[in-house]
């Protein structure tokens, strides 16, 4: 009996969700002091890295004056947060709540439930962080009317296309696969700003706080989606794999109409066709898929799933 207890204790200590949930209060942004956003705002610095604004690569952009370029970079920062919020609110949070339901075949032990509730709190706080930071930008840059609808983003559109005509558990599988693509690659999306030293300190710091939390979320989704994949039949596993590929492709697809709206803030009139042509001429943007590859290995799924997304666009 002592050997059994010791074995169970050892397994408990090795459980990644146990390690994450026990450290939650020490590692997440929501448990830290509120950042003084106005105190970290420097009006002389741009709000977004210029090299991450694709409209500056289009013909005619070289004629934009400094004020127009700065307004475009401010609008790009607002758009970046709107996309981040849409990912959290439309893709991730609904799946977190879904996986708490008994009908979804994932881990439902106390530790898994705690991990999901912690993730839900984190994601709501990330949305609040985005809203607060963008609120300062709108106020300080006089851009109160710059808004983006949640369905403007390619990943939200891709998820809608993937779940079209589906219902019940089949639709749930697609939603969960897209959320896995989000939570295991979003750190790469955030890293471009979180390491940018030549932009607003406020923008860099808030993005980095968000990025640090997401490394833990990748583990949560890897563990829970792994338990789901093992519990469903072969047809449902195939559906999950296909939806995961679709999710990764959607996350790498260019957002066309939002960039047209961003350019307009600087008086730079471009069309969706110009953005589409620019996107087609560029390599597929890289995303850190390391956490996802660990899950693929664990489930015996070929890495070709990830590699295929690097050379194909949705």
Question: How does this model look, in words?
Answer:
- With 314 residues, the chain is an all-alpha fold.
- 68% of the residues lie in helices and 0% in strands.
- The protein is built from twelve helices and no strands.
- The chain has helices at 2-14, 16-27, 66-99, 110-141, 154-163, 168-194, 201-231, 234-252, 256-264, 272-280, 290-299, 304-311.
- Helix 2 packs parallel to helix 4 (110-141), helix 3 (66-99) packs antiparallel against helix 6 and helix 6 (168-194) runs parallel beside helix 8 (234-252).
Summary keywords:
314 residues; mainly alpha; Ribonucleotide Reductase, subunit A; 0% strand; globular; disordered N terminus
């Amino acid at each position: 009996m002592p050997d059994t207890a010791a074995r169970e204790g050892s397994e408990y200590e090795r459980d990644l969700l146990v390690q994450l949930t026990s450290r939650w209060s020490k590692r997440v942004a929501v448990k830290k002091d509120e950042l003084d956003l106005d105190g970290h705002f420097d009006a002389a610095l741009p709000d977004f890295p210029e090299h991450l604004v694709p409209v500056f690569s289009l013909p005619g952009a070289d004629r934009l004056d400094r004020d127009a370029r700065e307004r475009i970079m401010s609008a790009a920062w607002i758009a970046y947060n709107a996309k981040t919020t849409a990912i959290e609110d439309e893709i991730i949070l609904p799946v977190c709540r879904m996986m708490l339901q008994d009908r979804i075949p994932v881990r439902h032990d106390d530790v898994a439930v705690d991990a999901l509730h912690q993730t839900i709190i984190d994601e709501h706080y990330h949305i609040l962080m985005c809203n607060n930071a963008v609120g300062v930008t709108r106020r300080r840059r006089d851009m109160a009317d710059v808004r983006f609808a949640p369905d403007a983003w390619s990943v939200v559109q891709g998820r809608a296309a993937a779940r079209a005509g589906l219902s019940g558990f089949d639709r749930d599988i697609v939603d969960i696969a897209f959320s896995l693509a989000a939570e295991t690659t979003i750190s790469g999306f955030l890293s471009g700003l979180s390491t940018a030293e030549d932009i607003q300190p406020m923008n860099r710091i808030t993005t980095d706080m968000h990025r640090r939390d997401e490394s833990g979320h990748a583990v949560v989704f890897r563990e829970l989606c792994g338990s789901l994949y093992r519990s469903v039949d072969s047809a449902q596993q195939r559906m999950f794999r296909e939806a995961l590929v679709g999710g990764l492709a959607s996350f790498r697809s260019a957002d066309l109409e939002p960039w047209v709206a961003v350019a307009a803030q600087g008086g730079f009139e471009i069309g969706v066709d110009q953005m589409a042509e620019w996107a087609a001429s560029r390599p597929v943007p890289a995303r850190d898929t390391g956490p996802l590859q660990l899950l693929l290995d664990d489930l015996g799924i070929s890495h070709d799933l990830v590699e295929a997304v690097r050379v194909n666009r949705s």
